[in-house]
């Protein structure tokens, strides 16, 4: 009698293989380099030039807020213009279908991609903090660096949740690409115009509690030596709410096949 029992490989080995493959794809992507590094550095340069001309609207927060803005948009771009589009294209190419017929659990497939994205978020934070510190003559202690990395992971989780919601609700990679770009521009303008205050107090208040605004508040808080405020606490709550809502939508309606 033939033994047809299928022996599953160790889960740790499977996960390491997936992470290795996803990491290789990520580092070889020119788009990743642009979204994770070029976008936040460009934001640092633009805000620095605006501050020198006296028209930035950053107020007393100054360099800390500029670095917070660059960090936020680096994480935003890598999620909405990177992660969601890659997932949508892999789904259309049948990558997920092929992986699902292997003994690999479905949660491990997505966990691998998320772990790589979190690693990229930490790398983005390191680059932005170093470049921003040099540009503005700032230096941070070990504790501040650790807090910045924690906030970076927290913010990345929120933006990845938004990206997951987009790719969960839309099956076409073209539609995901289009909606991701629209959301990116909206959130970008909401953050930049909100902190400038040019559109009035009401718009500034809305921008403050948007995903980007809340994350900027948190990044600014962990860089500052001033006392923790209630706004900082509410920023944590707001980010957590965005994370739960959008990730829930993305998980609930995510489809493994394009059709």
Layout of SSEs?
Elements: H1 11-27, H2 30-52, H3 63-92, H4 95-100, H5 106-136, H6 142-169, H7 173-196, H8 201-208, H9 211-223, H10 230-252
Helix pairs in contact: 1-5, 2-3, 2-5, 3-5, 3-6, 3-7, 3-9, 5-6, 6-9, 6-10, 7-8, 9-10
Summarize the structure in short:
The chain is mostly helical and 259 residues long. 78% of the residues lie in helices and 0% in strands.
What is the rounded distance between the termini? 40 Å
Broad shape: globular
Q: What is the average of the pLDDT values?
A: 82
The biggest sheet, with number of strands, parallel, antiparallel or mixed sense and barrel status, is: none
Low-confidence stretches: none
Work out the strand percent: under 5%
User: Helix and strand succession?
Assistant: HHHHHHHHHH
Radius of gyration: 20 Å
Per DSSP, the total helix count is 10
Instruction: Give the class from helix and strand content and strand pairing.
Output: mainly alpha
The counted number of beta strands is 0
User: Roughly what percent helix?
Assistant: over 70%
Could you say how many structural domains there are in total? 1
């Amino acid at each position: 009698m033939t033994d047809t029992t299928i022996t599953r490989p160790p889960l740790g080995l499977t996960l390491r293989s997936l992470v290795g493959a996803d990491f290789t794809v990520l580092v070889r992507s020119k788009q990743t380099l642009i979204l994770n590094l070029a976008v936040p550095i460009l934001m640092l340069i633009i805000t620095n030039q605006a501050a020198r001309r006296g028209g930035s609207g950053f107020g007393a927060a100054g360099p800390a807020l500029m670095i917070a803005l660059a960090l936020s948009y680096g994480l935003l771009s890598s999620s909405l213009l990177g992660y969601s589009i890659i997932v949508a294209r892999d789904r259309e190419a049948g990558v997920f279908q092929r992986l699902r017929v292997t003994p690999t659990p479905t949660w491990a497939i997505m966990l691998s991609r998320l772990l790589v994205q979190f690693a990229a978020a930490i790398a983005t934070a390191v680059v932005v903090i170093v470049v921003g510190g040099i540009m503005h003559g700032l230096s941070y202690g070990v504790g501040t660096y650790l807090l910045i990395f924690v906030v970076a992971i927290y913010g990345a989780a929120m933006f990845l949740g938004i990206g997951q919601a987009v790719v969960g609700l839309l099956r076409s990679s073209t539609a995901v690409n289009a909606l991701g770009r629209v959301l990116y521009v909206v959130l970008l303008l909401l953050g930049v115009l909100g902190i400038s205050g040019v559109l009035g107090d009401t718009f500034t208040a809305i921008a403050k509690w948007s995903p980007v605004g809340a994350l900027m508040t948190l990044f600014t808080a962990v860089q500052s030596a001033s006392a923790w405020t209630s706004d900082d606490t509410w920023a944590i709550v707001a980010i957590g709410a965005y994370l739960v809502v959008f990730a829930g939508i993305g998980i609930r309606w995510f489809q493994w096949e394009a059709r």
